[in-house]
Design brief:
This protein has eight helices and 15 strands. It has 307 residues and is of the alpha+beta class. It is globular.
Amino acid sequence: MAHGTHSYLPDPRNEDVIIDVNGEHFARPEAKISVFDSGFMLGDGVWEGLRLHAGKLAFLDQHLNRLYRGAKAIAMDIGITKSELTDRLYSVLAANKMDGDGVHIRLMVTRGIRSTPYQDPRVVISPATIVIIPEWKEALPETATRLLSLFTVHVRRGYPDVQDPKLNSHSKLNCITACIQATQAGADEALMLDPHGFVATCNSTHFFIVKDGEVWTSSGDYCLDGITRGMVIEIARNAGIPVYERNFSLTDVYGADEAFTTGTFAGLAPVGSVDGRELSTKRGPMVKRLQQLYLEKLSHEAVGTTG
């Protein structure tokens, strides 16, 4: 079972889940791709994580826009329209009788099958590979209140001319290495710095601090354009809460009143300590308020009113 921001209870229904591979439905044991697939061979592709809320994929337009932007950035043709991909998503949900809450989807698109193990896209001989894996998976209820521990790792979020952190690619070794170091240090999640020593993000979530009634998050220059991150910034501003995207250091973190992470899977999760420094002993009032505002935003999204 995953821990920290991705803690969940295993669900036996996932053993029989139906998976979409290139528009065809397969039982989980039969869902396969080629060993020559670009994603398996080189991590060449983009992906999204999606959640079903009240029968609707939350913030789907934003997720698909990011997916298609990422594909365009790496000169990859997804091969189908957003509308066609949306139909595939809801079709596989229907095939699994998933129509409420508690469902997480991993949507993966790779460049396709290569004729030989080589990085040049000109050896690709098939359309893009599109895989949709829906699972019965819901964050543990205590994730909303249990305080996370973070550990600052040596692995940095790098410059965009090396590998742009804004690209949600299949090449996640940078984040995996950070995750390993944090896990070995006994923490729930890794806190990662940017090349200048400022706080960037976590290995699988985004990071915020609260100081004197203000909410701070990184400048965004060295992290993924997070959907939940953006929603939290939006709802905070709409509620009159001062929120800033800015550079800040570990000194600011250690002196913060509250801290929390954001992500598609668990929403907002409170942080209690960073590098052994205790920030708080219980979920703070700002985190509690933002969690409620985020749930309200999800509810509006589910009924088609996203204002």
